[in-house]
Specification:
The complex is a heterodimer of chains A (about 300) and B (about 325). By secondary structure, chain A is mostly helical. In chain A, about 70% of the residues lie in helices and about 0% in strands. Chain A is built from eleven helices and two strands. Chain B has about 325 residues and is mainly α. In chain B, the strands form two sheets. Chain B has a two-stranded antiparallel ribbon with strand order 1-4. A two-stranded antiparallel ribbon of chain B has the order 2-3. The chains are: A mainly alpha (about 300), B mainly alpha (about 325).
Chain lengths: ~300, ~325
């Protein structure tokens, strides 16, 4: 088999693979957005900034503190998660009872501050983060070359999504969370500390985003604007999938990444637009989103 | 009522003599953004729809008029008209897609659509000039009479258009149509049950807001003889939200005050050591506004006047909707 639809298979598989990597980031980010939306009813605009912060803290740790990749993969989400906890406690909590659009505006402001601050300190140029030694190189599968690190990104993202999903669907904490999503007042009446749960949920959601940021650091260049370019696409992904189902968010994210990759092969000019186009079509055909419930 | 007229007359006279004191181009920038924010406020303040993609209309109109006037030699009046029509049409498409969802989803959808427009502007660098933008747009003569290359004449031209648009927004807000919009904003299910086709009202106000935002963008490109990618960037969408929020959502003069504050901030920061820190300041203003200042400057002033005297200025209630 020399060609598939007139394209060399190497190119085709390489782009599908790149698409899967982008898709993993979409999946992890939209999962975090959906979890936060479930309990707080706000869309976290600073999600992209938190992803960027994750990547930056990994870079900073390696550059100045000698913290290696694997430790950063644990520490950076923890640090960003704690930061998120702080933001929820000091700010988001105070606007719980006003229109939820204010939450979007507040987190937009936070994203501007974070981005601006990092531009101030590190400039707009991208920083390079080296691939960890253990995952250098790759393997030739015959139809394509598979770099180990990129395979690891996909595996790690899918595993973290599945673990998150299992925690929410199969554990007691997850049950509280789901109950809180349905009716926080009732859950509170049963003696569960809903405010604490809300803080932890927000912290966990942004930690997921930071985790994706650390995963992305060796692939993309670490720059202050890496998050804001991504988050708008992730918003479109969330609109397409609907935030009703967590697994739906993950599947939509991965699938859209692959579609975007394929578009690069067949009509590369449209690759940046294809997700927005799909969003428009989905809105026209099924406004609540593929996995969403009608409002 | 009398006091309102006096207030308007004072404001008008102030605007007429302002170029004596202030640099006309600063004033014109202020007028353009005040108009942009007023158009945005028509949508958010009176229909309760948060568009996160208004830069698309502003920037699209700037591109349309710049291309037509510079490369095709259209006179300014047709350039303006075409850009308003263009942004209204874009608004029709955006609105038609976005009103299928409400609240937070509406904001996300408009943001995504505007990003698609931004992306097209980046890709079509042959037409839009890419990162460089379109420079040297000729201003020409309005109806062949008014020489707009003269700063003062240009200022009064922009002022006249601003007053016209502002008057139109006022008329819309106080018309039966505007009242229905407020009903939709405050209680959509109720408006539906009263038999109003809510979707059509939302779509119409969206198109009107887009067209007015287009006028603002087009004027901006004529004043500064420049249309660039930053006009369609989401930062600009964020900026107009901030202006409206800062001045007071759902108040008539709020967007003007907010635009004034943001433009002043931009100019005072541009020279100092804090030139790079504008986004930080903007973000900080956002956070402060949302946390402690949701009524904005004008909203707070109204509240203050009302608490002092029960027969104060007629007040437009800012949307402080609860859920």
């Amino acid at each position: 088999m020399d060609e598939i639809f007139g394209f060399p298979p190497q190119l085709l598989f390489a782009q599908i693979f790149m698409g899967l990597i982008n898709g993993s980031f979409y999946a992890v980010l939209s999962l975090g957005l959906a979890i936060i939306f479930g309990l707080l009813r706000i869309i976290n605009f600073s999600h992209g900034a938190m992803y960027m912060l994750g990547a930056f803290s990994a870079w900073f740790g390696l550059q100045y503190l000698g913290i290696n990749y694997w430790i950063a993969l644990v520490l950076a989400p923890l640090a960003v998660g704690l930061f998120g906890l702080l933001i929820e406690r000091t700010m988001l909590r105070r606007i719980r009872h006003v229109d939820h659009l204010y939450g979007l505006l507040l987190t937009f402001g936070i994203a501007l501050i974070l981005e601006g601050a990092l531009v101030q300190f590190f400039g707009v140029a991208g920083q390079r983060y080296p691939t960890p030694d253990e995952l250098q190189g790759g393997i030739n599968l015959g139809f394509m070359f598979l770099p180990y690190y990129r395979a690891w990104v996909i595996i790690a993202s899918v595993v973290i999504c599945l673990v998150t999903w299992l925690i929410i669907e199969r554990t007691k904490i997850g049950a509280y969370l789901r109950a809180g999503t349905e009716n926080p007042d009732m859950v509170q009446a049963f003696g569960i500390n809903v405010p604490l749960m809300t803080s932890l949920t927000y912290g966990f959601g942004v930690a997921l985003s930071a985790f994706a940021g650390v995963l992305a650091a060796p692939i993309v260049s670490v720059s202050p604007y890496m998050g804001s370019n991504l988050i708008i696409v992730v918003f479109a992904v969330v609109v397409i999938g609907g935030m009703g189902s967590l697994l739906g968010a993950v599947i939509t994210g991965l699938a859209l990444g692959v579609i975007e990759g394929l578009t690069k092969v067949f009509y590369s000019e449209a690759a940046g637009l294809v997700i927005f186009m799909i969003m428009i079509i989905v809105l026209l055909v099924r406004p609540a989103g593929l996995f969403g419930r009608p409002e | 009522m009398n006091r309102t007229i006096v207030f308007y007359v004072i404001l008008f006279l102030a605007a007429m003599v302002a170029p004596v004191v202030l640099y006309p181009f600063l004033l014109m920038e202020l007028l353009c953004f005040a108009l942009f924010a007023s158009a945005f406020n028509l949508l958010l303040g009176y229909a309760g729809l948060l568009s996160f993609g208004h830069a698309a209309f502003f920037g699209m109109a700037a591109y349309i008029s710049s291309i037509l006037m510079r490369d095709y030699g259209w006179p300014i009046e047709f350039g303006l008209l075409a850009s308003i029509l263009g942004s209204a049409l874009l608004g029709l498409v955006f609105g038609w897609i976005a009103i299928r969802r409400s609240g937070i989803y509406f904001a996300m959808i408009t943001l995504a659509l505007a990003q698609a427009v931004y992306f097209l502007a980046v890709q079509g660098s042959g037409i839009t000039g890419g990162d460089d933008g379109l420079h040297g747009v000729p201003r020409g003569k309005f109806f062949g009479l008014l020489d707009l290359s003269e700063p003062l004449i240009l200022y009064y031209f922009v002022l006249a258009l601003f007053i016209g648009a502002f008057w139109l927004i006022q008329r819309i807000v106080h018309s039966p149509f505007g009242l229905i919009l407020k009903a939709v904003r405050d209680n959509e299910p109720r408006a539906i049950s009263l038999g109003y086709d809510v979707g059509r009202y939302k779509l119409l106000v969206f198109v009107l807001s887009a067209a007015l935002a287009g006028l603002a963008g087009s004027l901006k490109s004529i004043v500064f003889q420049l249309a660039s990618l930053s006009d369609v960037h989401w930062h600009t969408s964020g900026e107009v939200i901030l202006m409206t929020l800062l001045g007071g959502v759902g108040t008539i003069f709020g967007p003007l005050v907010g635009a004034g504050i943001v433009v002043m901030f931009k100019h005072s920061l541009a020279q100092g050591i804090l030139a790079e820190s504008l986004p930080i300041v903007m973000g900080f203003l956002f956070v402060v506004c949302v946390l402690v200042f949701r009524r904005g400057v004008v909203g707070e002033a109204h509240a203050f006047l009302k608490s002092r005297s029960s027969n104060g200025i007629k007040r437009d209630v800012p949307p402080n909707r609860r859920r």
